[in-house]
């Protein structure tokens, strides 16, 4: 890439790219809205049985009032906290293990097959055991969430560690960086794009698993709320709950992962 | 007077399945402020030698000395420039150049000032806040050079520092490194496979043999700088070194060929045995 060219047009270039990016980053709203309109039309025209398919506007009305209901927000918050605890727990185990597996081939040969073995087993099959050990509460949910989050974090970080160019280790050695500096100033940033993908996958998987656990064990949270309201016949409320998860998921994605992404994009 | 850097019977084995003899009693001296190039047939272990000088690797026997004291591990007076630049992509040009100073716990403002000074020296003033991905290969290597110089070393080691850069840019950069050498009076050691490059920059060219690498010959380049590539002495030395290297390379090829033939022969013997029922019979019997 020619740097001279960049130097001539720095403002206009970034300016143009920026506007394009801002516009493009909101384009996804259009198909989403189209989907909602289609939903409204199909239900309004009674193309589907009314009792099983509430209109979008009805769901939206319930959702708007639910958003002012502390109990509803608390349920979403409860699920979210379980999920975050699960990811943090998984992260604190997966990061060091994956780093060791990625940097020492002997450890990789011992550790990775074990992780793969557990990864191949359907995680949900452990749920009855976890409930037996921890009782049907958030402990079981967090344990399950961390089990699920472990694999994407482990494999992405291991891959990232393997891909650190040898030269970078030479650089840290030449300039006498201690172990701690080498890890924080070189290894962590070097593996961060991989780590971010791992966290994102873990976050996605964990929403699924948290909701599944809540439905299966009736742990307090938004999953059991959806289950309860739908089986009581209040489909609007159940769908409003799903909408609530969607809003939180998108917000976290944009704010947390978006920030991480935009940092990495500066230099990757 | 003791030489600045001494290589005293530096020997290196690698204990893989087959014991690999990389360096064999490599011995030569480097004077203060000299520019020395190390050339040798590819794969001979010249980069290993440089790594040992940098303290990135340990010799199996012998030692490297700086001012008469043995170099054990990375040394604060020895710095290095890498073939693939070795820049941290998440750091800006300035942060990369200041990395060595940061590791020496020099306050941010001071280290940025020093790094800027060296970035100016390599012609990167104004690019401080760019990321490596925005730079061309030649500019990346300038950052690498600034980073190496910023810690104010006495010895700068360069591992094929110009070979990942396009020829025209490399030529300009070589001239600048020559000037930096003249201005700073530091000792430079360059590992390269480019003979013109070695002759253009160096006071001394050390020619290594094929593996296990020994010092085959040392050329003192007593030519005026800037060097004229068409000068008879330049051309003559170039030809001589090239001849030496070719000789070495051919000897390894012959060695490989011989080994290949003997392997083929043993394979043939085995097949012969397998085909010959009598021999097979005896083998089973014994």
Could you walk me through the main structural features you see in this protein, from its secondary elements to its overall organization?
The complex is a heterodimer of chains A (268) and B (286). Chain A is mostly helical. Chain A has twelve helices and no strands. Chain A has one domain: MetI-like fold (Orthogonal Bundle), CATH 1.10.3720. Chain B has helices spanning 46-54, 93-97, 99-103, 108-121, 137-150, 167-184, 195-201, 232-275, 277-285; strands at 5-15, 19-30, 35-39, 61-66, 69-70, 78-81, 155-159, 187-191, 204-208, 215-220. In chain B, a hairpin with a 3-residue loop joins strand 1 and strand 2. The chains are: A mainly alpha (268), B alpha/beta (286). Chains A and B meet through helix 1, helix 9 and helix 10 of A and strand 6 and helix 3 of B.
Query: Regions of chain A with pLDDT < 50 over 5+ consecutive residues?
Result: 1-19
Strand content of chain A: under 5%
CATH architecture of the domain at 5-77 and 187-285 in chain B: 3-Layer(aba) Sandwich
CATH topology-level name of the domain at 5-77 and 187-285 in chain B: Rossmann fold
| Helicity range of chain B | 40-55%
Helix and strand element order of chain A: HHHHHHHHHHHH
Class per helix and strand makeup of chain A = mainly alpha
The structural domain count of chain A equals: 1
**Count of β-strands of chain A:** 0
Gross morphology of chain B: globular
Determine the oligomeric state from the structure: heterodimer
Question: What Rg of chain A, in angstroms, do the CA atoms define?
Answer: 23 Å
Q: What Rg of chain B do the Cα atoms give?
A: 23 Å
Question: What is the molecular shape of chain A?
Answer: globular
Strand-and-helix sequence of chain B, N→C? Answer: EEEHEEEHHHHEHEHEEHH
Report the CATH superfamily of the domain at 5-77 and 187-285 in chain B. P-loop containing nucleotide triphosphate hydrolases
Count of DSSP H/I helices of chain A: 12
CATH class of the domain at 5-77 and 187-285 in chain B: Alpha Beta
